[in-house]
Amino acid sequence: MDKYICTIINGLYKKTINVLKGKTIFEVLISNSIFLDAPCGGRGECGKCKVKVKGKLSLITDGEKEFLSDEEINKGFRLACYAKIEGDLTVYIDDNEFEVETNTKGLKIEINPSIDIKKYKNQVSLIVGMAVDIGTTTVAAFFYNLETGMHLYTASRINMQKAYGADVMSRINYCTNNEDGNEILHKVIIEQLNEMIDEFCRESGCNSSTICDCVLTGNTTMLLLAANISVVSLGHLPFEPQSYFGEYISNEKIGFNINKSANIYFMPIISGFLGGDAVSVMLACDYDKQEDNSYMVDIGTNGEMAIKHNGSIYACSTAAGPAFEGAQIKFGTGSIDGAIKKVSQENGKIKLSIIGKGNPIGICGSGLLDAVSIMKINNIIDETGRIEQDYKGIYKEYVFECDGEISFSLNDKKSIYITQKDIREVQLAKAAISAGTTMLLKSAQIEDFDVKNIYVAGGFGSAINMDSAGEIGLLPKHFTINAKSIGNAAGTGAIMALLSSNDRERANKISKQVKIVELSGNPIFENEFIERILF
């Protein structure tokens, strides 16, 4: 088979590789561990994997033309999952960096690590521990001195597995449909974490052998993939995981570049869709110590939530979908430079807050929530979510028709706008979270105003305007008024388990205390979901 030269360029590096004729650009990039945002996993459904290309490629298809404007095509843009290599080429990739929530300030932990400090004292001068939060979209690694509890370094990335799908179900499907899928996704995340370990060593001057203990947290799918345990059983009833963790796994099986005698501790999980991240958040919120009614939610592609009432913990997980992560949204993007992170109104004008400098290139979840809230407040959308075609209000110049669809522009150039389909995606996401919350309240037999402590976790949870969340019905208004944003609480819980054997034991007890509220196939949840699609 013919071989060609492919040069890949972004602001950070220039890389030249040999490629085979007929391979798609997407296949070439992911096989060489080069990140490309592809929420649909390269199936040609999302249109997000746009790259600028010079060289010989297959002819552009009608499928690509659905996602690319004439201007983009003229400038040489193609969809990586469609474009097949026919000769030497150069691929230009944006070097935008994502904002990843890593804030864990204010931790007060009694330092009592699980490992034998004396044992490692004979091997290394500094004893380091690593706590890792593997999110579906982002990965954060926190490095600590295990003797003093001092924070040494934090590294964060977009999860490279995102190239195989934006949500857990798409990655489960990938593993189901590909014999070596589990091994591939395991290798992707371990290689990425090893890069983060290398970064820590480079920046701190430490040797990788100083890392003597490691704690991993994440949703069930992410932890199973990190452990290289099959996730296929999560794709069908009864969604039973092959391990509930809460134990060490030998690093010989995992493959981290750390101390040879170190093992990897995996936080306990509750069910197929209530993972170690949910347990970590509850640990960080002191769910086992709370006397008042408490509610926590970690909003991402999945929404994990739990209510503590009268000594019982009721928890559920609902598929919010990737809308709040920017996927399935016309101009949706992650928290990168140029992303609109906040939308407000002032004197009949729309104001935008943008990450970084320059012109906006898209909108991330927090900005999307604000925009939809403004549309609701100003009756640009009705209670069914339909954009009013004959809208005559103060923002009438922002409502226009594009490609046969009524949309709401966010700028005068009408270059970034909210489509009717975008509104539907937000409705599905907010209905899932809202209905899940209602099911927990019903299970605990309490009303929303009975809940005293409300915690909103995660990167998206830290960024959202609570007024907007209450306006569109993402959470009960009582919750949004009293909510406390707690940042990356899953990462916080992992750090607590790393530094304190007592907190690690608390996490295990919390995981066994949870009563799972089943939503799948539950007619009450389905009715609540349908009702909450409306604004």
Describe the 3D structure.
The protein has a six-stranded mixed beta sheet, with helices on both faces. It has a six-stranded mixed beta sheet with strand order 22-21-12-13-14-23, with helices on both faces. The chain has a five-stranded mixed beta sheet with strand order 2-1-5-3-4. A hairpin with a 4-residue loop joins strand 1 (3-9) and strand 2. Among the domains are: 3-92, Beta-grasp domain (Ubiquitin-like (UB roll), Roll); 117-284 and 490-495, 2-Layer Sandwich (Nucleotidyltransferase, domain 5), CATH 3.30.420.480; 339-415, no CATH class. The chain is of the alpha/beta class. It has helices at residues 25-31, 62-65, 70-74, 117-121, 168-177, 181-204, 220-226, 251-254, 276-284, 365-377, 420-444, 458-463, 466-472, 477-482, 489-499, 501-513, 523-532; strands spanning 3-9, 14-20, 50-57, 77-79, 85-92, 128-134, 138-145, 151-158, 211-218, 247-250, 263-266, 294-299, 302-309, 312-319, 339-346, 349-354, 362-363, 399-402, 405-409, 417-419, 453-457, 483-485, 514-516. It contains 17 helices and 23 strands.
Q: Overall mean pLDDT score?
A: 90
Strand order of the largest sheet: 8-7-6-9-11-10
CATH fold-level label of the domain at 117-284 and 490-495: Nucleotidyltransferase, domain 5
The proportion of strand residues reads 15-25%
CATH class of the domain at 117-284 and 490-495: Alpha Beta
Shape, per Cα inertia axes: globular
